[in-house]
Amino acid sequence: MRIVMTGATSGLGEETARRLLARDDVTLTIGSRSGAGDLPESDRLTVLPLDMARLADVETFCERVGEKEPIDALVLNAGLQLSKPATSPDGIELTFAVNHLAHFLMIEQLRGRLAEGARVVLTASGTHDPKEKAPVTPPDHANVDWLAYPDRDPQLPKGTRQRVMRAYSTSKLCNILTAHELARRHPEVATLAFDPGYVPGTGLAREYPRWLMAIVSRIIVHSMAKDRTSTVPVSGGYLAELAVDPRHADAAGEYWSVRGTDLLKVEPSTLARDDDAARKLWNDSAALLAALRT
Ligand SMILES: NC(=O)c1ccc[n+]([C@@H]2O[C@H](COP(=O)([O-])OP(=O)(O)OC[C@H]3O[C@@H](n4cnc5c(N)ncnc54)[C@H](OP(=O)(O)O)[C@@H]3O)[C@@H](O)[C@H]2O)c1
């Protein structure tokens, strides 16, 4: 089974990669800007350079991945959370560029290289849903133009923290809408969106001081449901399961969420279930990529 993965060098993705490598039937190709990280050496592990902030890098990665045998599972887990607004080398908002657009480009470029019965798993987040009451500004829309170029967004929050947090939650909304639309357009591909819950101790908040994260953790425990906090082994293990377990072979864009120690199929937010928003996000993302290539 050939698996291609992003975000395999840290946090829950590293745990997922370890679990996958522990299986004799898996060969794993990871895209990484930091080598193999702490993953164990294995002749079933291939590490290809990839900075997802650069679309040209993503294209080169896809070309190299596409040269080998068909892919059985695409695990799109890389993600970042900024502490202050930043722009990618291609001139678009960095969170949107890495968390959504780079993964969308990978799906576009690697879809023709998927094996029969292949699956695509996108790591999203409960922060996309205002009902979760996460201490993260929720999305207002999934407008590609406004997300890529936030200065054009008439609803752009004024405060820096609200702005970067909304960029994060919205990029995760985009992951769910992408899974939804991929399943509609290509029902032959098993597609899933994954919410790992709140997983403290990963590198996601690396730009924030520890004292602030300690406060945030306390707020999360009080504001969110008790079962929304998870651990790296639990959530990383479930992501590996979604990638390989035959029970998910017929997945059609569902959203799976870690609740306590369980993995449950749940409904995402109202906006994440909007067919028109999903179709528009897909079309406008493709148009943006075409415009950026010229
Ligand atoms: N932790 C949580 O509470 C939580 C909750 C909900 C959803 N999530 C999602 O879970 C996923 C994994 O996050 P995590 O918490 O495990 O964080 P993490 O430890 O920071 O892992 C993020 C991964 O993404 C990679 N990545 C980030 N920017 C990249 C870039 N420009 N190019 C290539 N790779 C890049 C990182 O690579 P490097 O090693 O090179 O930095 C790392 O492997 C993310 O999609 C995140 O949004 C996390």
What topology does this entry show?
Layout: E1 2-6, H1 11-21, E2 27-32, E3 45-49, H2 55-66, E4 71-76, H3 94-110, E5 114-123, H4 144-148, H5 160-185, E6 190-195, H6 210-223, H7 232-244, E7 252-259, E8 262-266, H8 275-293
Parallel strand pairs: 1-2, 1-4, 2-3, 4-5, 5-6, 6-7
Antiparallel strand pairs: 7-8
Helix pairs in contact: 1-7, 2-3, 3-5, 5-8
The site of NADP nicotinamide-adenine-dinucleotide phosphate has 29 residues, from helix 1.
What does this structure look like?
With 294 residues, the chain is an alpha/beta fold. The chain has a single domain (2-293), classed as Rossmann fold, CATH 3.40.50. The chain is built from 8 helices and 8 strands, in the order E-H-E-E-H-E-H-E-H-H-E-H-H-E-E-H. It has helices at 11-21, 55-66, 94-110, 144-148, 160-185, 210-223, 232-244, 275-293; strands at residues 2-6, 27-32, 45-49, 71-76, 114-123, 190-195, 252-259, 262-266. Helix 3 links the parallel strand 4 and strand 5 (114-123). Bound molecules: NADP nicotinamide-adenine-dinucleotide phosphate. NADP nicotinamide-adenine-dinucleotide phosphate binds at residues 6-13, 32-34, 37, 50-53, 77-80, 98, 123, 125, 196, 198-199, 202-204.
